[in-house]
Amino acid sequence: RSLYSLWRERSQEPEVRCQCEVRGMWWLSSHWGQTMQAGLFHLKVLQVNVGNARLAQDMMVQLTREKEVQVAIISDPNRRRVPDDDARWATDPGCLAAIFASGERAIQRVLSRGIDGMVAVEVSGIIIISCYAPPRFTDEQYAKLIEGITLVAAGRSRVVVAGDFNAHAQEWGCPRTDWRGEELRSMAEQLGLELLNRGSVHTFLGTGAAPSSIVDVTFATSGLVATQSWRVEQRGDLADHAAIWFEIEERRSPVTPVHVPIRCQRRASEPSPRERQWKTALYDEPTFLRSLEIQRFAEVPANVVEVTRKLVRACDETMPRRSKRSAPKSPVYWWSTEIAVKRRACQRAFRRLQIPASAITRVRRRAVYVYRRRLLRDAIAASKRRKAQELADSVENDPWGNAYQMVMRRVSGASKRQMIEPTLVEAIVGELFPRHPPMEWPEEGTGHGVGPFGMVTCREVIAIASKMQQHKSPGPDGIPNQPVKSAMRCYPEVFRQLFQRLLDEGSFPDQWKEQRLVLIPKPGKPPGLPSSYRPLCMLNTLGKVFERIVLNRLQEHLEMDPAGPHLSPMQFGFRRGRSTVQAIQRVVAHGEEAIRRGHYNRRAERFGMVAALDVENAFNTVSWTAVGGALQRRNVPNGLMRIIGDYFRGRMLTYQTDEGLVTREMTAGVPQGSVLGPTLWNVAYDDVLAATQPGPTQKLAFADDLVVLAAAKKSRRAAKSVEEEVQRIQSWMEQQSLKLAPTKTEVIVISRAKKGNQHTTLNVGATTVRTGTTLKYLGVVIDDHLSWKSHVEYAVDKATRVTRALRGAIMKNHGGPTSDKRRLIASAALSGLRYAAPAWAEAALAVDSNRRLLARAQGLAARGVASTFCSVSVEVASLLARMVPIDLLLQEDVRCYRGREAGAGAAAATNRNQERALTILLWQRRWSAAAAAQGASRYIRWTNSILPEVEPWVTRGHGSVDFHLAQVLSGHGFFREYLNVKGLAASSDCPHCLVERRVRVVESVQHVLFDCPRFADIRRTLLGHGGRYPVMASNLGEELLRSPQRWREISQACRLIITVLQERWTMDSASTAAEVAEMRAAEREAARRQLVQRRQREQRQSQPRRSLNTAAGEEPAGGVRVRVRLQQWGAGTGTRLWQRGWRGAVPLLQFARTVVRAGVGQLQRQQTDREVRALERLRCRDLQQHRKAARARLKR
């Protein structure tokens, strides 16, 4: 059947089809996917033991994508393949058991992960417990595991327990029942769990030493799992265990929350939020504007419905809509056709191995299977390396593309999937958006009358459009920012008339009051709790533009009223001319004053207390009535009052669950993600700051972050003043339907007192808070002595983690982007070091340890940018990477901030350029002093001789430093002089000159580049030797900066020379390792001979002569009956020779005695070989460490 016939059949259903009038093609908005029966819950589960094998775990992840598995229960996972801080994974402390939520269902919460061998999570209301009890577990550990399972599963109605228990019982097909199996069976009976294992297919396939058996067991609540769905699949790519599949099917009824208007079932004509969105990657602005021109958009009336309808039609004609359901999962990034072919070959070899055959045939087939597995593993490793290199190379064209996003996701942890289970989502939403009494909005303000206030102009519309970010998520109508931005720029008069009419009417359209909820997980928080999510509301783009117009007029009244500002000067959040730096500086100034007073006067107020208070769910619980009253008290014009009142009335919250789109009525709060919301919060929250009470306390706020400051002669007095102020704040918040979170309160006391002398307690309600040594405020860690060591360590640790991830994925020495793109990415990674620098940098840089920590973090990034060896100094690496030293950069930020605050300079850019010139001058002085110092390194002096001037090198307009050129410029490379210093070469002499010229010359970078005869051809061709302007050590830097052509020639010469040196060193290292291995082998053979001789002597001296009964057993009533069991030693085929029935045969008895002696001798020889191998491992340990270190150094 053709696609056209399928489409004709589907075309009878109601769907949106739009003909593109400009492009002349059709877009279909429907998706031909499988539909699930209403009310039927379905969950596909994979259970497997990967045996701590990387190949098995990689194939398991690919298998979950191929089979659309929702949850994978994993025993004995590979620890290196389990990502850290990934919400899709849950493991026990020892990483013996894991659960991987690979599908759309997210892990709602982790119930238990503190017992080795067990992890329990909740997925869609089902408790899933993954277990692994290795054979090394003692009886106490196994009993603790069973007890942990019992505690978690007791009283639960929907439970699945699965894993490898290494327990045997006849109930699941084992020939016997051991102690572990008895305990496991008793636990299942106690919890009322049903055994799902069916048949006699072995789940453990055997390793050669251990026979195959059934040790992977699955239990579930009766009726939860379809029994016929449980099956075992023996595969050849999942280590030595089989894969177990089963499906959880349950019919669920829709859950309707109480007291909340709700619509769980979506109507057929109502599109889902995903269906309302378009594929913005295919957006073309000229085509979109042409579509608006065809629709005569310039003549559209000033009506919200008509403007939205024409924008939607233009989007339909120029962009395809997203499908109803997400596309099928793509394979893992390293998957390829070659790997698929090798996997099939591996599975064929495994199936042939299961066919009964002779011993020799099985040995051959097993060898083939092992060979196929090795090929599959090597193919996966090669594909990963190739894809990683391609990803790194893509940074050159797109620095902030997939490569950078993947690295940042790896550092911050993969984002949690959206919760879609109705009961849990409703509980979270109900906690985050509580219901309030009906709003009482003031009818008329006491302000300046109805108007007129500022008229909307086309210039204002264009200015708002120019500041719109293109890649923001759309609201419920799905219209992206790009089309709205283009339309506002091309047709500003249409939007001006629309917004002016709304201002004149004092109304806010109902179409813009719907907000789509997105729950953003907070990093490091457990899933499933309301406090673990930050609710963001996606609003319609046109509605946010109108909010901006209203906000401009509201801020003009609040901030620029001739009567004076109507907001407290202690509010620093979301206000013009105020920033986080100013708020932090206020807190720091309070602490500095306490330290200063304690320095010269012991009786002064030398204890400065800082208490950071947290408001529970502040933005979503603020009362609309309180907002209206605060606006009225600030004499807001009546027209704005009517618009803001209508802005709150009838607001609806929509969110998605697996039962449909849910709509909830809003009764309080300002939308997080709105334009007008933060300012309305400031107005409502301003009363707590404006209320002045007698006492030594101060209050300042940044949005909902409130800080109380107090100073006293004793820390306890300061605490009492803060407690009184907190009581007043709590009383005010109770009136405004707000609530403090006492458990999140942080308090420190800043003073010069010795550590511990200033600590005290603070009572916040019924909670007693102990003062700490550090406090994190607005992203800056403040310690109790203002040494800033804690903040520097915090910022350096964060920057180092990001830099290491970038170096491992993007900034490798071989390949990847150029140094310019690397420097751009490294600057973003180190940007956290410069955050709020004017508030702390000057004091922090006065401490030497802080400067060293900052330089260490920058040095790691600079070495990645310049592709140098890890031993290159920070000074040289920063110069080669053209990265200004971090301490000079922080000082420059402080000077620029002070210049802006003082109003010096015509523009910020001019001020920055002037300060950058001063920074370069300071850098030059430091660089010259480092090379001229008495104990300066020879490598720093070499680099300084090439690049004595900083400014020409930093401001050059061409050239990129790569791995080979960096070795020449730094002196750290594959030169015998450097390798000998690092212990990687036996001598520093040049091997070529020693052999060919019989001259002992040190192989330094200068000798290799300009003197060694083996590179004479390269020097003549690329360095101009023999011509008028040869490149020498004295003019190497000047020649590099002369022209791009000269740079390329010198860089090519360095690449050719360094490649030869690297290959020669690799060959020498391999030959040296081979010689050492031969020497160790000879020593091992000699040791084996000595050990054998000693064992033989001991045997002859101490072992008595064996009797005939050791080989023949006598029956009590039947004479002599010989039963000899012979096994062919060394062949491994397991051939057994049984001789029985002969009586009194002397020759046969002599033969049996001879065979037994031969077997004993073979056993002794095997024991001797084991001892020799153990001795060999001990003696070769230093050789292995040497090889490992050499490979690591070569890789770097």
Automatic annotation (TrEMBL):
GO terms classed as biological process: DNA biosynthetic process
One Pfam family recorded for the sequence: Exo_endo_phos_2
PROSITE patterns, alphabetized: RT_POL
SUPFAM superfamilies: DNA/RNA polymerases, DNase I-like
Gene3D superfamilies: Endonuclease/exonuclease/phosphatase
Residue ranges of domain Reverse transcriptase in the record: 501-782
InterPro entries linked: DNA/RNA_pol_sf, Endo/exonu/phosph_ase_sf, Endo/exonuclease/phosphatase, RT_dom
Region (Disordered): 1087-1116
Molecular functions (GO terms): catalytic activity
Protein name: Putative notoag1
Organism of derivation: Anopheles marajoara
Taxonomic classification: Eukaryota, Metazoa, Ecdysozoa, Arthropoda, Hexapoda
